[in-house]
Design goal:
The chain is an alpha+beta fold. The chain is built from 6 helices and 13 strands. Helix 5 crosses helix 6.
Length: 281
């Protein structure tokens, strides 16, 4: 152990600075999106079975909605550019820009070099939850996804229906990619409906029973053509454990909604990031 310096409390008391001030971040036109949503109709619904995953496609300018349908259930979401899997959801940068949890008005940002909005959250029936007394909140971009490698590391298990494997199988089925190539495209997730945070004493990632109930939903506006995959986590509402068949689990539903013609007049998909990629050379 090191010796505590005499000015330790003064060092701790230094005021923090926000790493990425967002005052100049491009703002979504939520009134326009909500206007378009009011005219939108469901053109496809996909049911995600418990402890499994399913894929869906959404054209730019349409919406997708994730709905709790039978019981409390969380889902792990991956999103790709439908025409280029190398552009995919970047949870770390989304976290840096919007915080550990996302809700209405926040956006899912894509990976380098595009770094642009892929989807914008336009409604969230759990936005009332806020941050609880434990520091927990809903829809996190801090968890990576339950996976068989960590399960094997911690318990020696060979569990195949964790979210990482579910997403891998679903992407392979949707694209025809061999499993190893599909697995390489699976990435850190948006934990939809999951209630999580960090403990104040040890800084450990925690989960607790999700407040989601049947009928709760979160709706996204697709800023570009999207391929999505959603896993109905084997942890159910994540009140006790995951990566096993022990927890009660329920399906989730994904609705794809297309707005009426003309309801998005003046809107254009965002361009890829404008950095010149010279990197000082």
């Amino acid at each position: 152990m090191t010796t505590t310096p005499p000015d330790a409390e003064a060092r701790r008391a230094i005021t923090p600075v926000i790493c990425y001030p967002t005052e100049t971040l491009p703002k979504p036109d939520l009134p326009l999106y909500l206007h378009a949503l009011r005219s939108a109709s469901v053109v496809e619904s996909v049911t995600v079975a418990p402890r499994d995953a399913a894929t869906f496609r959404v054209p730019a300018g349409a919406f997708f909605r994730i709905v709790s349908v039978e019981g409390p259930q969380v889902g792990d979401l991956n999103v790709w550019n439908a025409a280029d899997l190398s552009e995919r959801f970047y949870s770390g940068k989304t976290r840096a820009l919007h915080g550990t949890h996302v809700s209405t008005g926040d956006r899912l940002w894509s990976s380098f070099p595009a770094l642009r909005p892929m989807a914008t959250i336009v409604e969230d029936s759990l936005d009332w939850y806020g941050i609880d007394a434990f520091g927990g909140s809903v829809h996190d971009v801090i968890g990576t996804r339950c996976d068989p490698y960590t399960g094997n590391l911690l318990s020696g298990s060979q569990y195949h229906h964790c979210c990482h494997s579910n997403l891998t199988r679903a992407l392979a089925d949707a694209t025809g990619l061999p499993l190893p190539e599909a697995e390489a495209q699976v990435h850190d997730v948006l934990n939809v409906f999951m209630c999580t945070g960090f403990t104040r004493d040890t800084g450990q990632y925690f989960m607790k029973a999700s407040p989601v109930r049947p009928g709760d939903r979160i709706t996204f506006f697709a800023e570009i053509d999207l391929l999505g995959a959603l896993s109905a986590c084997p942890g159910g509402d994540c009140s006790s454990e995951h990566s096993s068949d022990a927890a009660p689990c329920h399906p989730l539903r994904i609705d794809v909604l297309v707005p009426a013609s003309g309801s998005l007049d003046g809107w254009h998909p965002p361009s890829p990031n404008g950095y010149d990629r010279s990197h000082g050379r």
